[in-house]
Amino acid sequence: MMKNKMLSIMLVVSVVCLAMTAPASADFEAYLNPCNSTVGNVIGIELAETKTLVDYTSGLATPVSVELVDGAANDTAGSNMPNAGTDAYITFNGKITGDDIVGYGSNTGWYCELVFTGLVPSSTYEFVSLQNRGTYTDRWTVISIVDADASTYASTATAFKISETSVSMVASQATTGEVARWTGIKSGANGTFTIHYTHSTAGAGIDRPTGSSQDGRKAYGPTGFMLVEVADTSNPCDVAKAAATYTEDDALAIGDTNYDCEVDLVDLAAMAYNWLADKTLI
């Protein structure tokens, strides 16, 4: 009897441990802090590092990774959150610490890149990037989305739009709080896309506003960034939930504790916990 009880407990604990390491399913929201340490579910990432994205709400690992490619850039201290009410503040306050920022390198032509891999081709994504450094009004960063099958430009209206895939923003963002943003991003079959950062090179009126000046190679990469996976509305599960033909009561009846149309390790862990706590499965 005691042996059977111990085996049951070991099985339950194994299920819980497996569930804790299982990747998050669709619909995640991940935040990363370049050149900073990991704090809670906001992941720190250094130049030349690759990190797995973590869902901000659940803390579960996602299938997506990002590499912060170092094209002779530098880790620069001294960034902060823009003023309340700005686009950047609304998106990132309370999540990104913004203590450090990717800074310019020693030579003209430096760059850094965020290379996302492991994306689901049937899903769409939203990417948002924040940068803020000092009071510099002559340091312009050109931010571009590369290798995406589709994307929709949605950066802050006051940012300098170069094209549907590129935007330019000045370093000083304390009062304006602009962000670079693309929605409706599709990775294609390869499951990847890239965000490229470098300094303005083409000149005023081309890759920065008319009448602006550029201090040589000086500009910055991200202070923080966000990637959100958006549900595929053609997914039968999402359609059923929207039409109320699959309710939370329906889900609980079959053991789908997190209402994602699947009974997986996450659900088994929840049922195992409840069983240990009060001998009920749900």
Gist of the model:
This protein has 282 residues and is of the alpha+beta class. The protein is built from five helices and 15 strands. 19% of the residues lie in helices and 32% in strands.
Helical percentage: 10-25%
The side-by-side strand order for the widest beta sheet comes to 3-4-7-14-9-12-11
- The end-to-end span amounts to 25 Å
What is the 3D form? elongated
Number of beta strands = 15
Low-confidence stretches: 1-25
| Strand-residue proportion | 25-35%
Largest sheet, strands/sense/barrel: 7 strands, antiparallel
Report the radius of gyration as a whole number of Å.
22 Å
Number of domains: 2
Helices and strands, in N-to-C order?
A: HEEEEEHEEEEEEEEEEHHH
Individual helix count: 5
Structural class: alpha+beta
Average pLDDT reading: 85
Description:
This protein is an alpha+beta fold. The chain folds into two domains: 2-22 and 233-278, no CATH class; 29-230. It contains five helices and 15 strands. The strands form three sheets. A seven-stranded antiparallel beta sheet has the order 3-4-7-14-9-12-11, with no helix packed on it. The protein has a six-stranded mixed beta sheet with strand order 2-1-15-8-13-10. A two-stranded antiparallel ribbon has the order 5-6. A hairpin with a 2-residue loop joins strand 11 (160-163) and strand 12. Helix 1 (2-21) crosses helix 5. Mean pLDDT is 85; it is low at 1-25.
